[in-house]
Amino acid sequence: MKKLGLVGGVGPESTLVYYKRINDEYRQRAEMTAVSGDNPPMVIDSLNLADAYNLSASEDWDNFAELFIRSIRTLHGAGAEFAAISANTAHIVFDEIQANSPIPVIGIIDEACKTMRLKNCKKVVVFGTWFTMASDMYPKACAKYGIESIMPCEDDRHRIHNIIFPNLEAGIVLEEDKRAMLEIAERTLESHQADALVLGCTELSLIIKEGDLKTPLIDTTEIHIEAIVREILG
């Protein structure tokens, strides 16, 4: 069994989801119960969301990457044997993080693409922060699997981003925000005849649930957690 080092805090709500779901998934796969008291080996380094946001907003990608590299080094020093980052936006600089990490890092984007391929997706719509939707990380990764990724129009990107920040990052889910998200999703999916909606932000699963849309969801948080637990169990 391997010890996980989880980079959290970006944001706090998704970090809570990761912690709980990693424990739940671990018990399920190891055929244990909550009352057994068995938990997977894990250390968490909680970063300051404001620092990460300001660096990405200013497109200071070198220092953005260094923020996560330092965190993984801290986790390694605490005994972590592999790492994961509980945020999609951090994966804009994943190659640099991975190249400078002292331990393996389980990435979220490639795991999501593997699931898309298993579901026979040919074209997907990606929701995320403005930074994620403006980057080429999903288009490049999806293209390797023969999948086309579609981003919402610029106005819709702003609307989605402004729901994620500040509300979803604080764990606040408003009914009007959910209606707006689903309206954008339905319209964009239909106009592009896409196979699935990718929840490319770890907080989006707080507001969009399986069954809210006729189109399937690619929940990157859940996919990432499953990959993390497989690595813990070896």
How do the helices and strands line up, and which of them pair or pack?
Elements: E1 4-8, H1 12-29, E2 42-46, H2 49-57, H3 61-77, E3 82-85, H4 94-100, E4 105-106, H5 108-118, E5 123-127, H6 130-134, H7 137-144, E6 148-150, H8 154-164, H9 175-192, E7 196-199, E8 217-219, H10 220-233
Parallel strand pairs: 1-2, 1-3, 3-4, 5-6, 5-7, 7-8
Helix pairs in contact: 1-10, 3-4, 5-10, 8-9
Structure report:
With 234 residues, the chain is of the alpha/beta class. It is built from ten helices and eight strands. The strands form two sheets. The protein has a four-stranded parallel β-sheet, sandwiched between helices. A four-stranded parallel β-sheet has the order 6-5-7-8, sandwiched between helices. Strand 1, helix 1 (12-29) and strand 2 (42-46) form a beta-alpha-beta unit. Helix 5 (108-118) packs across helix 10 and helix 8 (154-164) runs antiparallel to helix 9. It is globular. The mean pLDDT is 95.
List keywords for this structure.
8 strands; 4-stranded parallel sheet; 234 residues; alpha/beta; globular
- Our estimate of the beta-strand percent is 5-15%
Poorly predicted regions: none
The pLDDT mean sits at 95
Helix residue percentage = 40-55%
Largest sheet: 4 strands, parallel
Strand order of the largest sheet: 2-1-3-4
Radius of gyration, in angstroms, nearest whole number: 17 Å
**Total strand segments:** 8
End-to-end CA span: 6 Å
Kindly name the structural category.
alpha/beta
Approximate shape: globular
Secondary-structure element order, N to C? EHEHHEHEHEHHEHHEEH
| Count, helices | 10
